[in-house]
User: What shape does this take?
Amino acid sequence: MVAFRGFLVAIFAVVAGYTFVVASNHGLNLLPVFFGDMATMAWPGQFNLDFMCMLLLSGLWVSWRHQFSAAGLALGLAAVLGGALFLSAYLLLTSVKVKGDVRALLLGEARKSG
Assistant: This one.
């Protein structure tokens, strides 16, 4: 679990740093670029489509883990919009909360024993 948590911290730090540099140089106008690349039907758009599907799966999993409660839906939306930055922080904090119990981490507290 220590190595996994270190990996999550590294992801968070790298993505946060990279995002800061890109936002500083290009602004926060991501969506037109993101969907514009998809509209061109080229490899950057294919990557964005694949990435968007991964974001949607991440959001669905987070919502499911919280049994589609209001908080779970809000966290799921945060997962879709926040990407790896959100998910690395979420998994790190949740792994601490569940004291390293991987079953509880993946399934949620309510499903871990079933």
